[in-house]
Amino acid sequence: MKTPRRTRNSTQDALNFFAEAGLLKRVKRSGWWVAGIDEPESVADHSFRTAVIGYYLAFCEGADPFKVVTMCLFNDIHEARINDLHKMGHFYIDFKQAEEKVFQDQMRRLDQKVTAHLQSLRAEYTEQHSQASLLARDADILECLIQAKEYVDHGYLEAKRFFQKAPQHLQTASAKKMWAALRKWESGQWWQNVVKFQR
Length: 199
Known about the structure:
This protein is mainly alpha-helical. Helices cover about 65% and strands about 0% of the residues.
């Protein structure tokens, strides 16, 4: 007697995907360990602020904010299965190939409309030709630069090394303008101003 095939349950599959995405709240950004930071932010922390930055840059450049934000939010989704790998690791391992394999596996059981949309956006981001993809990548770099500045301002001076090469990869005028301001910016200024205002 044949075992009956398991019926696909799209709601269950979606919930499983949400749980997997939630794992990113516990996956740490490994590059900062090299800079001596014991408890760096999580991939989910990074993705959230990258999306906020991407949203803002999209309006600055007249791009579709929904597309940019979606690219930012799902750019590192594969790290739920294979973790974050710093640049030294990338030198020895073909991580890009692994990322793509994981992403395709993650998409396999989702609603076809969702899968098609996310696969299309990922391909667009990877190609780095469209305005939205350039902005999403710039948002990713800017988030790292902001995080590096925050770490430096908290005494982790090794994080300054990130300022050497990352800014060279910025493509859009708005992102480059942000970087120019960031170099002189004090990361704790915002909350100090709030406290002054409330006195």
